[in-house]
Specification:
By secondary structure, the protein is α/β, with parallel strands linked by helices. The protein has two domains: about 150 residues, Medium-chain alcohol dehydrogenases, catalytic domain (Quinone Oxidoreductase, Chain A, domain 1), CATH 3.90.180; about 150 residues, Rossmann fold. It is built from nine helices and 15 strands. The strands form three sheets. Strands 3, 4, 5, 6, 7, 14 and 15 form a seven-stranded mixed beta sheet that branches. The chain has a six-stranded parallel beta sheet with strand order 10-9-8-11-12-13, with helices on both faces. A two-stranded antiparallel sheet has the order 1-2. Helix 2 packs across helix 8. It is globular. The model has no long low-confidence stretch (mean pLDDT about 95). The chain binds NADPH dihydro-nicotinamide-adenine-dinucleotide phosphate. The site of NADPH dihydro-nicotinamide-adenine-dinucleotide phosphate has 30 residues, from helix 2, helix 3, helix 9 and strand 15. GO terms for molecular function: oxidoreductase activity, acting on the CH-CH group of donors, NAD or NADP as acceptor. This is Enoyl reductase (ER) domain-containing protein. Keywords: Oxidoreductase.
Length: about 325
Amino acid sequence: AREIRLASRPEGFPTPENFELVEVPLPDIADGGLLVRNQVMSVDPYMRGRMNAGKSYVEPFEVGHALDGGAVGEVVASKAPGFEVGDTVLHGLGWREYAAVDAAHATKVDPRAAPIGAYLGVLGMPGMTAYAGLLEVAAFKEGDVVFVSGAAGAVGQVAGQVARLRGAGRVIGSAGSDAKVKYLVEELGFDAAFNYKDGPVGELLAQAAPDGIDVYFDNVGGDHLEAAIDSFNLYGRAALCGAISNYNTTTPTGPRNVGLAVGKRLTLRGFLVHDHKHLQADFVREVGGWIASGELRYQETVTEGLDRAPEAFIGMLRGENLGKALVTL
Ligand code: NDP
């Protein structure tokens, strides 16, 4: 069996040399454990933070050890009651072909109800992040004008559509290519979208939202957040989900106009999806229903082969993915 280890810590953008593909024996499983053959794994932006030394909100990856992260696979051996060979499970030991998983940290999923990759994307952690961030953290209400950055990614594509389906006044998205902008407007029903590489974000947002914005779903940080603060109406609310524009740089940028938060009575609220588990059932019911009815659409960008997982991860950080970035094994 093969796994991918952290070979060295990146400075700035990761490179293939930061990863190492290693042949290892099949892991043993203890009582209460499962041996899982992974079929699909997730590459996510937060993994970039874990490649640095020092604790963020998750433990760092260790040099010389396998990386980990969301994965779905088939149980091939079980020493845990309630799990049988052939079950499909969602768990946290990706970046390897075979995982010895503690059954307490595995969730059975139904491969007939949805394609297994959806449990890592639209129906999984990123979809839930969009749902909780918009509805609870940003306290979205009908009629709000909503701006979503990173809008063609895993979280963003769901956030914008939940806003539309819940009765937003207008939904505006930003993304890093013309093809993504087209996808947002033509496929996902955004009212307006722009390519943030076309000019200063503040100007592009002001053109797309001439009457201002009420909610900002922030996946990007930096100049995007600064632009949103300028465009905010009174009592505007930002869900600070991530700041990917600063993940791969040694010279981070921040909003210089955060002082406007006072006069505009803004709420800028950071959040982690794990704190919103009470919304899980509502999320699956509502978003699952919209997927089934065709009202909510989504894309995945799938790379084949564990050996190409580093490439898929780096590509995602560079914006090569449309929708959720996944790796099949
Ligand atoms: P995506 O699928 O959106 O992939 C990352 C995207 O980021 C790329 O496709 C790229 O798209 C964009 N990007 C990269 N560099 C920049 C840049 N300099 N400026 C603007 N955009 C950039 O990832 P996710 O949907 O999984 O994650 C989106 C955000 O949500 C991240 O910030 C992540 O950390 C955060 N997150 C937070 C969670 C929480 O609990 N708070 C949980 C899950 C995710 P483009 O072509 O448009 O540039």
